[in-house]
Amino acid sequence: MKVSPKTRFNLQLPYIIMALTFCFSPFIYATEIITVTKLKSQTTSILGSSVIPKKQVLLSAQIAGRVISLQGKVGTAFKQGDVIAEIDASGLLAQRAQMMSQISAAQANLHNAKTQYQREIVSPKRDDISAMPGFGVPAMMDQYMTRPMADMMGNNNSSLNKQADLVNIQSNVAQANFALQQTIAQLQQLDSSLRNTKTIAPFDGIILTKQVEVGDTLQAGQPLVSFGYIKQLQLSADVPSTLVLHLKQGTKVVAKVATHPPVQAIIAEIHPIADPQRHTIVVKFDLPEGILASPGMYAEVMLPMSNKNQKSIITIPASALLKGRSLPSVLVMEGKSSALRLVRLGSRQNNGFVEVLSGLKTGDQIVNRPPAGVTSGWVPQNGQ
């Protein structure tokens, strides 16, 4: 039977691949012989967290009333100072008009009191001859004779009477001024209530949640919207108190948000009080700017374990473990040959190494990145 060249090549292809693999395996696998050493434990604790805005506030109604305007929807962006919501102010505007008329009346009373005071200083009422009683003689005679004689006899004191009249007029001026200032204060209070009918954006941000709609009747203090600045995001995690003791503000840790690659987060805030039920402390981490994440997304934070009483442990690269075996094992060099040795593993380190609890000791030489399927006696061709 005649075989075509193409068929002959397809039959020989597996053997060609095996030959090339055998010849170039040192370069393909880049195996090496390394020495087992002890390193400081670098285990980490992975905690769940949530993405939150760096700045977030709950805007509430400052006065009771009906919502007549609510700008935008969830996700709508606002600049600082923009009006987000507005409550009906028709009743307050009517009160303000009434208050303005009261201020005008108070100003008129104050002006009249000041005029009477100036008149009393220049021309006291007690010196007005038209107001003096007479004895059948001209009133002027009474002014020059009757009162001076009464003062001499001690039945009258004209100077004291003039002073009393002046103090009375001064009291009227003070009361009129007090009434005006009181009315102005009431107007300022009313203007403050009018300003509170509008909910203003305290900073640049977006609406995170809405608690009311147009037409709702609110009481003072009832939440309107949740507002946040999402250009800078944070992670909020409930950290066990045993892990918080050695954390410091400004420390960098590894964080992973959703499907994004791991990023570096910075510890921004550590709450001073722990939860008495769960014995955890809220810790916030600053995320780098530009990360594609939204508030509420799940994230993981990798925190280093406590360094207190930290001891050295035997670690090996995870790539030194033989592939395809049910039990963890490595190839240990014994002279010019190698022997398969089972090992007991501990926790994985955050530097790509794995802790070895038993099976190896310091100074042992092992094969790193061994090819799949090798066993005792195999020695890398690119060895030492």
Q: What's the arrangement of secondary structure elements?
A:
Layout: H1 5-29, E1 32-35, E2 37-40, E3 44-60, E4 65-70, E5 77-78, E6 83-87, H2 90-122, H3 139-153, H4 158-195, E7 198-200, E8 205-210, E9 217-218, E10 223-240, H5 241-244, E11 252-257, E12 263-270, E13 280-286, E14 298-304, E15 312-317, E16 329-334, E17 337-342, E18 344-348, E19 353-358, E20 365-368
Antiparallel strand pairs: 1-20, 2-15, 3-10, 3-14, 4-6, 4-9, 5-8, 6-7, 8-10, 10-13, 11-12, 11-14, 12-13, 15-19, 16-17, 18-19
Helix pairs in contact: 2-4
Computed over alpha carbons, the radius of gyration is 46 Å
Q: What characteristic shape results from the CA principal axes?
A: elongated
> Largest sheet, order of strands side by side?
3-10-13-12-11-14
Continuous helix count: 5
Strand content: 25-35%
- Report the biggest beta sheet as strand number plus sense, adding barrel if it closes: 6 strands, antiparallel, barrel
The secondary-structure element order is HEEEEEEHHHEEEEHEEEEEEEEEE
Class computed from helices, strands and strand pairing: alpha+beta
The total number of structural domains is: 3
Terminal residue distance: 51 Å
Please give the oligomerization state of what you see: single chain
- Helix proportion of residues, in percent? 25-40%
